[in-house]
Amino acid sequence: MKIFTSTQIHELDKYTIDHEPVSSINLMERAAKAITHCIEAEWSNRTPIVVFAGPGNNGGDALAVARLLADDGYQVSAFLFNIHNKLSNDCALNKKRLIESKRIKQFTEVSVNFEPPTLTPDTVVVDGLFGSGLNKPLTGGFAAMVKYLNSSPAKVVSIDIPSGLICEDNTYNISANILKADLTLTLQQKKLSMLMADNQKYLGRLKVLDIRLSPEYIQNTDCRYRILEENDIRGIMQPRDDFAHKGSMGHALLIAGSYGMAGASILATKACLRAGAGKVTVHSPKRNYDIMQISVPEAIQQMDPEETLFSHPVDTEPYNALGIGPGLGSNETTAIALIAQIRRSTCPLVIDADAINILSSHRAWMQQLPKDIILTPHPKELDRLAGTTSSCCYERLMKASELAERLQAYILLKGHYSALCLPNGHIDFNSTGNSGMATAGSGDVLTGIITALLARGYDAPSACRIGMYLHGLAGDLAAKDLGKESLIAGDIINYLPKAFLRMED
Ligand SMILES: NC(=O)C1=CN([C@@H]2O[C@H](COP(=O)(O)OP(=O)(O)OC[C@H]3O[C@@H](n4cnc5c(N)ncnc54)[C@H](OP(=O)(O)O)[C@@H]3O)[C@@H](O)[C@H]2O)[C@@H](O)CC1
Ligand SMILES: Nc1ncnc2c1ncn2[C@@H]1O[C@H](COP(=O)(O)OP(=O)(O)O)[C@@H](O)[C@H]1O
Ligand SMILES: [K+]
């Protein structure tokens, strides 16, 4: 699913009006009907409704909803904020229709002073102050109104997006001036800011309402952001050849696990095997030999000369892909071996965990990274790598994207909606995965999966897309059977077979 920017959403709106064809007022009515339907499904007509409408089309939607609810027997009070005496055409038309319908309990147009109504816990507030047209943070009277609503006991339903939240960049927005909705009914598609962890507190429950905007525009318009769905992944997965043999299914090398961190290499290795690599070799320090042999008998063991850490780069000629980093530690000997390993590697590379941390403390080495390398940082690792200090998720995402462009690398920033930042500046978000996966070792599993896919011959973007999707899907299937609370990283590996099966259906 493409995630258009607010500018593109306006173009899409206009294109639909011109080409469907549908008049803009009828498109607004379509949106208002969908919103009204959702509200009526949740609250009976004994619920007092208070509608707050702004001067633009978000306000127009809200006034149409006020009329439709009143028509269906709800007690509706509506406030239209028209402080500059300037309404959008469709907002003005819906004001007229609302007044003419006469079913409304109270309609107030606010131009100067606003006497806020009493909001009881059983009241539902419909927020149509600002939607995708908000172009700067709220200030003054509107900010005060948001604060008033946030401190009220009423339930809030936001139309399209909670007022005060901007569709993309909220880096310099003020949290107290953004409405906290209980339910957000967003039109046609999620907005970029809805994918960010730090904005979840504003959204409440989020529903996407299909208002049938032009499929032609949606299909033909290039878009920087998209959410990967099952069909996108099915489209790039290759069937396993009947005549496949272990020599044709890729030989993966993992360099992982220092003494005390054998678990990370075990998880990555098992995941790599379960993701269908023909052969997996794991390079780890001598002291981990027995535990590795016993834990993953299917893998080939390669011992580092050192007892407890990775110290010697290896020849990658026999391998089709290398994953390096899980549980590696950040000893200086390991750091030097890592950069030597990166320099001499001839196969596709996945860099994770401690390998990323080592690069963060030796930034000059980043210039030596080959093109098309894959880095899989979690947010803290990305912050160390890119030197981000802000807690703003959008800013971090932009840093990750800039870094991907500068290095011509694939940066997979992990989390809910993991974001794959591509060298061309585009960003693909993953749609699978759940909070049960917030458990140590989940990332090691992802590294193993992506390394396997690279070894099998997928190019870097496909390996990342399929890898993060299957990883999340395995987590979802595991959570369905086991619940989220007790999920551990090993469960993700155990459910990878079912995730593959689901994609073969
Ligand atoms: N997508 C679709 O196809 C469909 C979309 N629809 C609906 O349209 C909505 C978008 O409508 P919209 O473009 O009229 O913008 P909206 O959010 O109402 O605000 C614009 C007004 O706000 C003002 N303003 C901006 N920032 C401000 C600030 N900080 N503080 C104060 N004022 C500020 C701005 O003023 P200006 O910047 O122009 O001076 C202008 O007056 C969308 O969210 C959805 O609900 C549906 O009807 C049907 C199909
Ligand atoms: N709430 C969540 N929703 C979806 N996926 C999640 C969630 N929490 C964690 N994950 C996934 O689990 C993995 C965690 O990786 P990471 O933080 O590197 O773990 P570790 O370092 O312990 O192996 C990532 O792939 C991430 O996307
Ligand atoms: K709104």
UniProtKB/TrEMBL annotation:
AMP binds at K414, G415, H416, Y417, S418, G443. InterPro entries: Carbohydrate_kinase_pred_CS, CARKD, Nnr, Ribokinase-like, YjeF_N_dom, YjeF_N_dom_sf. Binds 1 potassium ion per subunit. GO terms for molecular function: ADP-dependent NAD(P)H-hydrate dehydratase activity; ATP binding; metal ion binding; NAD(P)HX epimerase activity. It catalyses: (6R)-NADHX = (6S)-NADHX; (6S)-NADHX + ADP = AMP + phosphate + NADH + H(+); (6R)-NADPHX = (6S)-NADPHX; (6S)-NADPHX + ADP = AMP + phosphate + NADPH + H(+). Its EC number is 4.2.1.136, 5.1.99.6. Residues 9-219 form the YjeF N-terminal domain. Residues 229-503 form the YjeF C-terminal domain. Homotetramer. HAMAP family: NADHX_dehydratase, NADHX_epimerase. In the N-terminal section; belongs to the NnrE/AIBP family. In the C-terminal section; belongs to the NnrD/CARKD family. This is Bifunctional NAD(P)H-hydrate repair enzyme. The gene is nnrE.
